[in-house]
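REQUEST FORM: STRUCTURE PREDICTION
Request ID: SP-0412
Submitted by: Lab K.M.
Chain count: 1
Length (residues): 589
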Amino acid sequence: MELKQANAEGGRVQHMKRNSEDIPNKPAAGDGVAEERKSASQADPGANAIDAAPETHTGKHYQRAILPVEPLAKDPETDEIPIVPNSEVLASLHKVELAVSVDDAHLIDNIGKQHQVDYISSEQVKLHQGIHPLNWIFANPARLIAVSFAMLILLGGVLLSLPVASNAGVWTSFLTSIFTAASAVCVTGLVLVDTAAYWSVFGHVVIITLIQLGGIGLITVVAAFFSLTKKRMNIKTLRAVQDSTASDSVAEVYSLVKRVLMITLSFEIIGGLILSLRYTRYLPAAKAFYIGMFQGVSAFCNAGFDLMGGWTGEYSSLTALNADPIVTMTTTLLLTFGGMGFIVWIDIFNFRKNRKLMFHSKLVIGLTASIILLGTVLFLILEWSNQGSQAMGTLPTWQKPLAALFQAATLRTAGFNTINQANLRDVSKLLSILIMFVGASPVSTGGGMKTTTVAIVLATLRSNVQGKKEAVLARHKISQEIFTRAFVITIMGMMVVMAVSLLLMITERKALADGLYSAMDLVFESMSAVGTVGVTAVQTENISSWGRIPLIFAMYIGRVGPFSFALLLSMRSQKPENVVLPDGLTFIG
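STATUS: Completed
RESULT:
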């Protein structure tokens, strides 16, 4: 039996054709049709990829056999690929009756010995499993991310609305509950009620759980869910996850989940213990541990939630702890490390073995340091003499550099604050909006459009202005495909911010007319939500009920949007155009 391999749309499948020397043909009325299909498939290997229901029949010859979703490793002893009959061969197409019987064992034996078993396409999975809502969700990683986050927000909203979740033991309005749940899952930090003062211990547990799941969710939703539920990953999903995690094999994709959890828990526990020990100077040990560990998880996940409301005043965040460098610097390091991304930390931990860092890691470290240092210097210059309430200018001279450093770091999607954001000068608010837009780095607990995305767009623009044919970033060539993804994500991020800002200006037009806050403040709030930052210049609880709805969607889109769109663009195949269009000649500039 001769085997032939070809590519089909969405994945690789295995072709097998009859060999007259091996198996004699049985004349039949359908042979002419079979020969036509055979000729067509040889001329166009992708043609007629699916035209029969998935079956497995003994005594029939398979011209095309659909093989397992996951790659099968060779047996080290026999150097063969083991395949389980019937359960592993999911479907067969173009069945032709033979004069002699070819059983499944013989067929599978040939496949295992003569073929390198590859993946099954998503279309074949649908054909085999049938139409089902779960199959529809699992078929697309971007859809899986979006639905999973939405369901987690809905579940969190329901739990937080229960009387047991509030200190007063009363039902919480669903809008407040769903807003808090969305802010926690999307690791934002915008709140309508003070976390410490309003929510009970049960409510705190729900919030920190949502933060934890939301912080590590972008990678675990794709990989861990398939691993834990034993679901098979189709080729598009697998390649998208491999691309986003820089992993080289399926084993690395699944083992990445364990490493992500180890990194996350290590930083959270160490940071939380440092904060807890420091808080024992001010609070009883049990309360210090409770607040410190909560803040450790929230800081590494870039969530911005804290329990200071019952200690230093509602909505105070860390403004009362400016004079404590251990608290501010520990929080700064936690939120910065969380925003660098899991891939960078895995690469750093592997440095001893590899003796070098990936280009991505070097780029992220350089961009992160540059943004924080430049932001620190600019905030020092712009806010040094600001005498507003809880502004930088009111602090002692030695505290100002720490406050400027914390401000530059927290705007990269953390949400904590040590100075009053409402009293920032307009130029400082504009600088804050720019830093929030850039955000953290890919595959991290932070949000924003991501450092590498914006850097690629700027590097390409610079190369075009200089007349270069290729975009260059840090002495590395940037492909057109990567630039296209980065450009689309950047433009879509701008459009979402503008849309949310416009909606807020409509819903808050009375407050604007009364001078309670400015249009700049609403743009600041919109960018904080879309970038999943969590700082506010208007006190989010002052936003009207109608204005809170676009903020919920802004946080949701800001968290799942950039990564989902990156996956969609990376999986979208370029289909050849069959229509020749005339050149569009127009003027620009």
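NOTES: The chain is about 55% helix and 5% strand.
Reviewed by: T.R.
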